[in-house]
Design brief:
It is built from seven helices and four strands. The protein is mainly alpha-helical and 221 residues long. The protein folds into two domains: 11-151, no CATH class; 153-220, no CATH class. Helix 5 runs parallel beside helix 7. It is elongated and about 65 Å long. The two termini are 27 Å apart.
């Protein structure tokens, strides 16, 4: 997961909410599409949960995720801070192959995608096998049981990123003898993974950032 910084909500959502009684399902198709584009833009076109790139050529290409579900929190169904962009998460496939919002349904999460207290990125860890986890037992359980983020295909994708960055960084590190120059290199690589191209993040970008943060901490000691 990557912390999300909200941008200004779409005018069509504001206008719809200003005419009660207003419901999410009452949004026009044009308003829903504007909302999707807003969510994609602020998230860099990656899923709010698994960080896979959300495709642009398929239909449906994404889901509008209500972090707190409409059934239990109807008053939040049009609250922009409660809305995120999620991949389709294997919708229509067997339950064991579903992830993200599709797997989550109406279940509640405690990890917050917006707040800095704490930043969700600091609560997660990744390893060379592509596994995502947390030292917080409740969050770790939610990653596996509510979001199914350790499904094999997701692990394979994260593993490819982790090992690719590790191989490149280790090779470069051996060429740089100076500790301060190595630290500068790690920080530059981290920035590359945090930057966007055409407003799009690379999928699983925070896996690379996690690995590079480990290298930075080690070289700061």
């Amino acid at each position: 997961m990557k912390q999300i910084n909200k941008i200004q909500e779409p005018n069509s959502l504001v206008q719809h909410r200003a005419n009660p009684p207003a419901f999410y399902n009452g949004l026009s198709q044009a308003a829903k599409e504007e909302l999707r584009q807003n969510l994609l833009s602020e998230q860099g076109h990656i899923c709010c949960y698994c960080m896979k790139r959300i495709p642009e050529s398929t239909n449906p290409y994404m889901k509008v995720e209500h972090y707190k579900c409409q059934d239990y929190y109807p008053d939040l169904q049009l609250t922009y801070s409660n809305l995120f962009g999620a991949c389709c998460g294997g919708e229509g496939k067997p339950k064991k192959l579903q992830t993200c919002d599709t797997q989550k349904g109406n279940q509640l999460l405690t990890i917050n995608l917006l707040t800095n207290a704490p930043n969700c990125e600091t609560l997660l860890r990744y390893n060379a096998n592509g596994e995502i986890g947390s030292d917080n037992d409740e969050i770790d359980k939610q990653l596996n049981e509510i979001l199914n983020l350790n499904m094999q295909t997701l692990k394979d994708g994260r593993r490819e990123v982790y090992l690719g960055v590790q191989k490149e960084v280790e090779a470069k590190s051996r060429q740089i003898g100076n500790k301060q120059l190595r630290l500068k290199y790690f920080q530059q690589e981290k920035e590359k993974w945090l930057n966007r191209t055409d407003n799009k993040h690379r999928q699983f970008c925070m896996v690379a950032v996690y690995y590079l943060n480990k290298k930075i901490r080690k070289n700061q000691n």
